[in-house]
Write a structure and sequence with these properties.
It comes from Paenibacillus dendrobii. By secondary structure, the chain is α+β, with helices and mostly antiparallel strands. About 40% of the residues lie in helices and about 15% in strands. The chain is built from 9 helices and 9 strands. Strand 4 and strand 5 form a beta hairpin. The longest helix has 21 residues.
């Protein structure tokens, strides 16, 4: 199968197959929205400490600043469609509604959806892929309209589902820790503070967090702060202002973290839609 790619300043669509097994999750987060449509293969996704093993024609939604990664478990061909977009592509009056399924705090209970017969979502992705054939003068309009149609379908399907069952005690603990970190991501806190807040030892906290998320508390916080700072810089803040806003105590620490996470220094201007 030949890969299909659409790449504009506001949307990236990629339909491809990989056969190379990976040994670990390539964990990361970023400033745009993602939709993964899984077609075939033997993979697992890790999203903020929750592991998903997708079935064919299933869908996974990733909001900005959400820590996630994929691991290819075998050499079975991994076929998927990945869609990345910035919210500015959507009409302002529809953004909050169409993006609601990506955000559990807005009342949606899940980010993973099963489509057993492949008829619920794939036709919408097919329409998006076919938009590459549209005349250049209307291509962006076609992409926007067809993206709205896909997101509307996801929204309708989400409301038709029953609420998820309660998670285990351990999963709830990690979920609570992640919620705390996200609520205080720009604040100054230590592992001792977390340990006291959740009445568990630092050793146990680190152990359950790493087991669930695939990374350490420190790496999780630094990665998110860097991506948040990148977003503030794209909105016009200087690197120093952005570093202070997201909780870095000094610029040199921010500079090293930024370069380690993103692969380039804060002075390099980047299109936020470019994938590494």
């Amino acid at each position: 199968m030949l890969p299909i790619n659409i790449h504009t300043d506001a949307i990236i669509l990629h339909h491809a197959v990989d056969v190379q097994r990976t040994d670990a999750y390539a964990l990361h987060c970023h400033n745009y929205y993602e939709v993964f449509y899984f077609i075939a293969g033997d993979v697992s996704y890790l999203v903020e400490g929750t592991r998903y093993v997708p079935e064919p024609h299933s869908l996974l939604l990733i909001a900005p600043h959400v820590f996630h990664g994929v691991k290819i478990e075998s050499e079975s061909p991994y076929e998927r469609i990945s869609l990345h977009f910035v919210p500015a592509l959507l009409p302002p009056e529809n953004q909050s509604t169409l993006l609601r399924p990506f955000h559990a705090e807005q009342g949606m209970a899940r980010i993973y959806y099963k489509d057993l017969d492949g008829e619920l979502f794939y036709p919408f992705f097919k329409q998006l892929m076919d938009a590459r054939l549209a005349d250049e003068t209307i291509r962006n309009l076609v992409l926007r309209v067809r993206l709205e149609a896909l997101l509307s379908q996801i929204l309708m399907f989400g409301y038709s589902l029953q609420p998820r069952a309660d998670a285990s005690s351990s999963a709830r603990t990690v979920s609570d820790i992640i919620a705390y970190l996200n609520d205080h991501i720009s604040d100054s806190f230590t592992l001792d503070d977390l340990s006291a807040a959740f009445y568990i030892s630092k050793h146990h906290l680190n152990k359950v967090f790493r087991k669930a998320t695939g990374t350490t508390v420190g790496n999780y916080v630094v990665h998110k702060r860097v991506v948040m700072a990148q977003n503030l810089m794209l909105q016009g803040q200087t690197a120093s202002e952005a570093a202070a806003s997201v909780g870095f105590g000094d610029y040199s620490t921010f500079f090293r973290a930024y370069k380690k996470v993103l692969g380039y220094s804060p002075s390099v201007k980047q299109n936020p839609m470019l994938l590494k």
